[in-house]
Amino acid sequence: MKTLILLLTLIAGPLSAQPSDSLRIRSIYDEALARGQAYEWLRYLSKQIGPRLSGSAGAQKAVDWTKQLMEQQGFDRVFLQEVMVPHWVRGAKEEAYFRIGKQKTAVPIAALGGSVATAPKGVEAPVVEVKTFQELRELGAEKVKGKIVFFNRPMDPTRLNTFEAYGGAVEQRANGATEAARLGAVGAIVRSMTTAQDDNPHTGAMRYGTGVPLIPTAAISTNGADLLSKSLKENPNLTFFFRQDCESLPDARSYNVVGEIRGSEKPEEIIVVGGHLDSWDLGEGAHDDGAGCMQAVEVLRIMKTLGIRPKRTIRAVMFMNEENGLRGGIGYADYARKNNEKHLAAVESDNGGFTPRGFGIVGTPEQRAKAMRWKELLAPYGLHDIGPGGGGADIGPLAQSGTVLFGFKPDSQRYFDYHHTGIDRFEAVNPRELALGAASMAALVYLIDTYGL
Amino acid sequence: MKTLILLLTLIAGPLSAQPSDSLRIRSIYDEALARGQAYEWLRYLSKQIGPRLSGSAGAQKAVDWTKQLMEQQGFDRVFLQEVMVPHWVRGAKEEAYFRIGKQKTAVPIAALGGSVATAPKGVEAPVVEVKTFQELRELGAEKVKGKIVFFNRPMDPTRLNTFEAYGGAVEQRANGATEAARLGAVGAIVRSMTTAQDDNPHTGAMRYGTGVPLIPTAAISTNGADLLSKSLKENPNLTFFFRQDCESLPDARSYNVVGEIRGSEKPEEIIVVGGHLDSWDLGEGAHDDGAGCMQAVEVLRIMKTLGIRPKRTIRAVMFMNEENGLRGGIGYADYARKNNEKHLAAVESDNGGFTPRGFGIVGTPEQRAKAMRWKELLAPYGLHDIGPGGGGADIGPLAQSGTVLFGFKPDSQRYFDYHHTGIDRFEAVNPRELALGAASMAALVYLIDTYGL
């Protein structure tokens, strides 16, 4: 048996895990669970800074504070990287109701990011409800013109991974207004992207197609959507009213915040670990994505605290503007290209601060296979789901240069309860789940640094 | 390749999973996720009935309601099974503070289940803080007599599985008062069994050893414990005061509630799926263990709804009195023995309504190996942790008769945030996580019924 193990070790070569790796990884988890800092940092970011939509004062405070935080950690270099970002503001709180005869029934809505305002007095019109763009097109301009289109296709609750359910529904939010405007609609209302049944509207980015009128669009809570749908069946002629005064201002100056520990052997090879610093304006952006940012800083802190001197340069990047422009992610990749930086790998946490389940990998089959050899070391920590998958929006632009991308995959069941709402608050984050995520990312970064890809 | 698969199928024989099993399991999850009932049932049990400590009016209401619920589901047989249970009552809300000079600092406590009251005016005494029973014994009677012993060993936060951390600390709660009384202490205060840092005291069962004075004992919140510990370092002579008027009344009549679907081929072989219906008195017993009870009923509902006619008899059992006596579990096993019932397997859910991770199995190596062949069918649903492990307190007594036990293992990170506190409420349960647990249990029961053990 010993001979066999020796033989396998020789065959596997330097890429295979060494016995000491399991001890090292254990020490990473111990540090995160017993003395982790990410949770208290997230408390500050959520409670003292709060919402930080691109271009807002909150976003600027978050830039200043995370730079200071990383400097206090004694990282080898901390710097800002300028990007120009869209600057959309919600304005006054939205108002919405549907009217049957003289009776008005209020429903909770939130303007979608990027939407135009309604007229100051609001817009009121009859409603056509559809589940798909196909259904809308079949109705045709005759039945849509002058109306408000109500997109009401729910996320599929039977998908185990809620991100797949989101992927199957989110086109309504992103492109619904454009599809409706093509047929002469005067507004678009979209069922919130969540499997939860409640009164929280979920905002999020939308974009207007070219050559169509810019009509106002908002998300309605799932309870509101169900009530509207039921009422429409009973009263097809009801009218829907909404008012919002959101606005797109000129692009604003902002920053990615970068901190690094310089590599001892191959400092020119960079491993990025990051999240996005901007958030929607309704809550505190605790899960989306304060969690990922604080976990990224925690990865570097853990390495420093445990005396792990990486061979390669490890960089924590707080990307700006993932939510409504991705300027930070694009700008970072541009910066890397211009400076001839070699990015070996990038790890992003942007799926919430929940219990870790694995990592999705974007890379060549050989690179994926190398990373999947680490499964055995990571499975004891509940990381079973390691294989091909999405990386992350912010790190996506690095793929063009051959960087291997890793998307952190926490348990997805609760994420869309909070996503883009007023309840994405610090209280929704569990300290152990957050810490386990940071430890999982640190363990992966340690393995990438030690064995390459 | 086809030949190889055929060969493997022949070797594996009838125990191996058939292709249709994966479709059947998929339909179980679809039903639970899209049309699951467990969450709304749990809402009723938590909000309309609430706490249901053995012997209380709430426990009786829960017995009546779950019987009615199972009858409404049209199960083949629903019946009550009488057991006599301990009847402990908390009485008036406890009061506690520590005193330094004239300054009193209030701290949150909760009497431990089974504890005696203090004198009506309370008890006040100097404090000795210890981490272990060994440490206490080394102090000896001289330093302990007349004092209140403060057991302050935290649950180990570095254990990935919080139940292991609990196992390493809970002797303080169960036996602390006895150990303290042996050395002449007048009271015992125990750090709450949780890794959370907050103001919620966690109650739970304790027992008095024979031949020692019955001294009052209570749990103190973790924030309270840290404050007391810190204050003791600065003021070793501070005194601690607490008052509680809890009481053990004569045993009360209660019931296990049992519902079954009769097997079509081997009705005499029984598969139990269950949870415990009693709860502590402070919260709503939502995770502990309303979740497990409603999941068990949901397993039978799903089978009925999908037209799965089991070969064996499937029984949902709501056990009474897991928290402070286990009379229901013991009584059920007695009943089975007296009636010569053959229990093939028993599945218990008593670790909260969180995202499923696996099952712990108690059985012979051969039985475990059979069950572990189903891993491949269950892994797509996140059930990776299937192997030797604990079954469950209520089903434990069945093991003597050779029943194979399965303990449902959901993710454990949040369980001890709520366990035995006032915040174990319906709001702490996520509907998807609860539904996934019910589906996982139903899938396991389906496989046991189809292939035996």
Description:
2 copies of one chain form a homodimer. The first copy, chain A, is of the alpha/beta class and 453 residues long. Chain A has 2 domains: 17-88 and 250-451, 3-Layer(aba) Sandwich (Aminopeptidase), CATH 3.40.630; 93-245, 3-Layer(bba) Sandwich (Glucose Oxidase, domain 1). Chain A is 37% helix and 25% strand. The first copy, chain A, has 14 helices and 16 strands. Chain A has helices at 2-12, 19-35, 38-49, 57-72, 133-144, 162-167, 171-182, 222-234, 286-305, 327-338, 365-372, 375-378, 415-418, 431-451, and strands at 77-89, 95-100, 103-106, 109-111, 123-130, 148-151, 187-191, 217-220, 239-243, 247-261, 266-276, 312-319, 342-348, 356-362, 385-388, 404-410. Chain A has an 8-stranded mixed beta sheet, sandwiched between helices. Chain A has an 8-stranded mixed beta sheet with strand order 3-2-9-5-6-7-8-4. In chain A, a hairpin with a 2-residue loop joins strand 2 and strand 3. The longest helix of chain A is centred in the last third of the chain and has 21 residues, at 431-451. Mean pLDDT of chain A is 96; it is low at 1-15. At the A-B interface, helix 2 and helix 14 of A face helix 2 and helix 14 of B.
